[in-house]
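Contributing new records

If you add data, match the layout below exactly. Sequence lines come first and carry their own label; structure lines follow with theirs. Keep one chain per record. Anything else will be rejected by the validation script.
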Amino acid sequence: MGIKVAIGKLPLADPLDSYISSRMTVLAMRSLEITASHALQAAALPLHHRDPFDRMLIAQAQIEEMTLVSADSMFNKYDISLLWAAKS
């Protein structure tokens, strides 16, 4: 998110740190640390998607058996639970 904000692709009403903190509190969310098993899974994924950040999200979704929310159609090529988040 920080990179997207910095390059102007994700405008936020609040500074990034307070935005994330407040949204995590409101939504009762917790953070998910990157582990060695996540990194190994990301490295083992087929190269459908070459973005390392997205590959890490895919690997975490697989290992943690979580649903990934995205509007990136490349995620459909991986064995994950995906919640489509495209703008209508």
